[in-house]
Design goal:
Elements: H1 15-26, E1 30-31, H2 48-54, E2 57-58, E3 66-72, H3 77-88, E4 93-99, H4 101-115, H5 143-162, H6 180-189, H7 195-209, E5 214-219, E6 223-230, E7 233-236, E8 241-242, H8 246-256, E9 268-276, E10 279-290, E11 293-302, H9 310-313, H10 317-327, E12 332-337, H11 344-355, E13 362-366, E14 377-380, H12 389-396, E15 403-406, H13 412-423, E16 427-432, H14 439-447, H15 451-457, E17 458-470, E18 476-478, H16 482-486, E19 500-502, E20 522-533, H17 536-543, H18 548-557, H19 563-572, H20 578-584, H21 588-601
Parallel strand pairs: 1-4, 3-4, 12-16, 12-17, 13-14, 13-15, 15-16
Antiparallel strand pairs: 2-3, 5-6, 5-11, 6-7, 6-8, 9-10, 10-11, 17-20, 18-19
């Protein structure tokens, strides 16, 4: 690090500072002196003097023909190639790691000083006696030495797992990905580790352990705030950090996501991939300039998570059967709508899992690939190379497809290509961002898709949300007041046999808080679904550009259950609370739709207007036949 006219940088005052600066600039770990192993040169076929000439030092014993080597950070490709060619003669393939040049030189000099034999005194006959070399190796029969060697070997293997070699491949093998827990443990035990690296690793591990879906790192005027989104709600899990740590934390995350650490005026998007407890985890990173610094938001994606089936996702039997029928059609388009984080991808993958069969060709294009399914072709969008959703769809059409999944329909080109695929004998599943099922038609019309193409290709629309499950270990049963029920259009007399629950929210500061939900009152989430199934009258109304309200009314007459109605059903079944339904689903339009749905599904006497039961053949009040 030297001073430059454009940005003067002071010289590092210590080796630790120089190592930190190199890690920030190069985006790679720089080894410390404790990780250099010059004592291994005797096993590698090259003399120590040659290692000193090369300026490289081994860091671990060879395994499967691969040798971990520490080299100075300023080495060019020609120097690396020269060393690799020399090691090929000894059947070794180098894996380069960075270290400080002066520390490599000191380690090799120390090894040379300790390995030289003591000079032998001359004898009268001029013969030189045999010299006894220093015991550099442990005896094979010494148990203590054997255990020590085993521990050292294990530590070296962990170091190997932490290294991220530049293989030129976007997706590395699982064994080559850095393990977060191992990285944090080594960073805590190493005297040369950067505290910022340890802090960032601890944040990521805590988010994964607590089951968070998003991480928000937000600089404020006085502090750096960190929040996790757990079960759809942002929560604070750490005390506020000093504001002075904002640039260092942001730079560390940018390095891990392969972003430009010098660009702080424009938003950037990247990805971090790490191993965590044997699973491959992706962090989708987004940075945004703000008044107090750069805000970083990360979406956590578990690509190795177990997929849930429709029987687990959907509690209502009728809704589950309707969605299963839509996914089993030979051609057409199925839309799944909802906001970000509402479980759309999980629902689509559950449908794909049921269609996954050796006799069916299934292809998906996603950004990013959230789940991994065997037996299907999954394609990752790469906008830097021009591979977007529309281009991938056009390529799929030449791959003899049966079922196609489009991660998101966000523009006219993608929408038209997906509809054309659905019209030519393929089943297309895709997602769309809108408020409910009926408003998806208006969203497509806003994109510029012709209504007659939508009506001809669409099979059905699924709108969904996720509600927090009330914790079954600490929930409290109660009787809601008439005022509370009236907000949802309910009547006390009609809900007299229902047991309502509310969340026992105590906070984790209380000593006797519920260990299952950590005092939040909720644990896990449950899906809420609204399924609009296409019929001939609804298709004709779409082709005639009928309003969203008219389409919603026709769907209700056809038996569609609203989101609010589904949520209230979950309340009656004890899965969630009225407060959670109000937070996520209750709006003026949703309440009006639910009241309209109830009026359509309620039997009344045509003569006196009294309410009737389904099994009554005549009105008991005026004796009028049904």
């Amino acid at each position: 690090m030297t001073r430059t006219p454009s940005r003067p940088v002071p010289l590092p005052s210590s080796a630790e500072q120089e190592r930190l600066e190199l890690e920030l600039l190069l985006g790679q770990p720089v080894l410390g002196p404790g990780q250099l192993r010059p004592d291994l040169f005797q096993d590698l076929g090259l003399p120590l003097q040659r290692w000193r000439q090369l300026g490289a030092c081994p860091t671990a014993s060879p395994r499967a023909g691969e040798l971990d080597l520490a080299i100075p950070h300023q080495w060019n490709d020609e120097q690396k190639q020269r060393l690799a060619q020399e090691l090929q003669g000894h059947d070794l393939r180098p894996r380069f790691q960075l270290a400080l040049a002066q520390e490599i030189e000191q380690a090799l000099e120390h090894a040379a000083a300790t390995s030289q034999p003591e000079p032998a005194p001359a004898t009268e006959t001029g013969a030189t006696p045999q010299t006894t070399p220093a015991p550099a190796r442990a005896k094979a029969g010494d148990p203590a030495q054997t255990r020590a060697a085993a521990r050292a070997s294990q530590q070296r293997s962990l170091t190997k797992d932490l290294s991220l070699p530049n293989t030129g491949s976007e997706l590395q093998e699982v064994s080559d990905l850095e393990d977060l827990e191992v990285s944090a443990a080594e960073a805590s035990s190493s005297a040369n580790a950067s505290p910022i690296v340890s802090l960032v690793d601890r944040i990521l591990i805590e988010a994964l352990t607590s089951g968070a879906s998003d991480i928000h790192i937000e600089p404020q005027e006085q502090a750096l705030e960190i929040r996790f989104r757990i079960d759809g709600v942002l929560q604070k899990h750490f005390e506020d950090l000093p504001r002075g740590l904002t640039p260092a934390v942001t730079s560390r995350l940018k390095i891990m996501a392969d972003l430009d650490i010098a660009e702080r005026r424009l938003p950037q998007d990247g990805r971090i991939r790490r191993m965590f407890r044997g699973r491959k985890m992706d962090f989708r990173v987004s940075t945004l300039p703000s008044r107090s610094g750069e805000k970083v938001v990360m979406r956590l994606l578990d690509s190795g998570a177990t997929q849930l089936g429709l029987d687990t996702l959907i509690t209502d039997q009728h809704a589950r059967q309707t969605l299963r029928e839509l996914g089993s059609k030979p051609y057409g388009m199925v839309l799944v709508t909802g906001p970000t984080g509402s479980g759309k991808s999980t629902t689509l993958y559950a449908l794909l899992a049921e269609r996954n069969d050796p006799g069916i060709n299934i292809s998906t294009v996603e950004d990013p690939i959230e789940y991994t399914l065997n037996g299907i072709t999954q394609t990752q969008v790469n906008r830097d190379k021009g591979l977007d959703f529309a281009m991938a769809l056009r390529a799929f059409m030449r791959q003899d497809p049966d079922v196609l999944l489009v991660g998101e329909t966000r523009d006219l080109e993608t929408a038209k290509t997906a509809i054309e695929a659905a019209l030519t004998g393929h089943l297309v599943m895709t997602t769309l961002h809108c408020n409910d099922a009926a408003s998806a038609i208006a969203r497509l019309d806003e994109m510029g898709v012709e209504p007659f193409m939508v009506s001809a290709s669409l099979l059905g629309i699924v709108s969904q949300r996720l509600l927090r499950r009330v914790c079954v270990n600490c929930r409290i049963s109660y009787r809601p007041s008439q005022e509370e029920l009236s907000r949802f259009g309910l009547v006390v007399s009609q809900e007299s046999e229902v047991t309502f629950y509310r969340a026992n929210i105590t906070g984790n500061a209380v000593e006797d808080c519920c260990p299952a939900c950590n005092g939040t009152g909720y644990k896990g989430r449950v899906g809420v679904f609204e399924i609009l199934r296409m019929t001939d009258p609804i298709a004709a109304a779409i082709a005639k550009r009928q309003t969203t309200d008219a389409l919603r009314r026709m769907a209700l007459e056809n038996g569609m259950k609203t989101l609010l109605g589904y949520g209230l059903q979950l309340v009656r079944e004890g899965h969630t609370t009225l407060a959670e339904v109000e937070r996520m689903l209750l709006t003026d339009s949703s309440l009006e739709s639910e009241r309209r749905s109830r009026s359509l599904n309620t039997l009344t006497c045509e003569n006196c207007g009294a309410g009737l039961h389904e099994d009554w053949l005549e009105c008991p009040y005026c004796l009028t036949s049904r």
